[in-house]
Design brief:
By secondary structure, this protein is of the alpha/beta class. 37% of the residues lie in helices and 21% in strands.
């Protein structure tokens, strides 16, 4: 299982690989990468709305590299609650801030949109995007890791996360942190990478394959299992995306892995 990395896995090396990769994206979003980026990708592959994308400054939208559409979960999933004015939203590893800024517009001046990211250059892009969009009073970008979120207990109405949990060597800890910061009744709006079958031990022991968003991807049933074990209710996949179509990642992985992005919904019991 990919819930935890294999014994003797070099987690610090992985973290530095990921940090370096997304620092490069922040500085050169038009470079060559194993994943898609930008607002056109968000619209055509992941069903982001044109109006939402148009309202996000390029410094944030050009650096978008998600694998699903977490805010769409709140809008379209039966039983989910749409993001409302006055809500507090946490964007978990916010990157350049596209999802964060869309959420900030929805919560409005009485709400709060908190972004946490470990990469300084991405945090700078998110802050600049918020300023250009006139959202600096709503958006709060913080340095931090998803295994130790700089957020108070039971303080947010929804956590959004897009394509990053697969990068964690200890997914139980990440889910526990999400659960901790959510208010009772709060929602997890998660997009992430999953695979059809478990990778070999050799592949799962390679931090470079993890950094490519594949080595640490969960098998489908594991995503629901870890959410349920953490305490979440109603955990389920609600949409799928062929987010790697045409990328280098698609060319170099086995077809029977069926690597793809999903939208996943769960709720913390009231």
């Amino acid at each position: 299982m990919a819930l935890t990395a294999p014994e003797n896995f070099n987690g610090e090396y992985l973290r530095e690989q990921v940090r370096a990769e997304y620092d490069r994206v922040a500085r050169d979003p038009n470079g060559t990468y194993h994943f898609h980026r930008g607002p056109q990708y968000a619209r055509e592959y992941l069903q982001y709305g044109a109006n939402d994308l148009a309202a996000v400054p390029e410094i944030s939208s050009a650096r978008f590299a998600g694998v699903g559409n977490p805010l769409r979960i709140a809008d379209t999933t039966p039983g989910a609650t749409p993001i409302r004015p006055g809500d507090t939203i946490l964007d978990h590893a916010c990157g350049g801030g596209l999802d964060l800024l869309i959420a900030a517009r929805r919560v409005g001046p009485t709400g709060k949109a908190i972004g946490v990211d470990m990469t300084a250059a991405m945090r700078d892009c998110a802050r600049q995007g918020a300023a250009l969009a006139g959202l600096s009073d709503i958006v709060d970008v913080r340095e931090g890791l998803y295994e130790a979120l700089p957020v108070e207990d039971q303080s947010v109405d929804a956590v959004i996360s897009n394509g990053v949990i697969n990068l964690s060597p200890d997914k139980r800890k990440v889910f526990a942190e999400i659960y901790r910061v959510l208010k009772p009744g709060g929602q997890l709006l998660l997009a992430d990478v999953i695979v059809q079958r478990e990778l070999t031990e050799e592949a799962r022991s390679n931090p470079d394959i993890w950094a490519a968003c594949i080595g640490g991807a969960l098998v489908e049933h594991e995503l629901t299992e870890v959410a349920t074990a953490t305490g979440f209710a109603h955990g389920r996949i609600v949409q799928r995306f062929n987010c790697f179509m045409g990328t280098e990642a698609e060319k170099h992985v086995s077809k029977d892995l069926f690597v793809h992005g999903v939208n996943f919904y769960a709720r913390k019991p009231s």
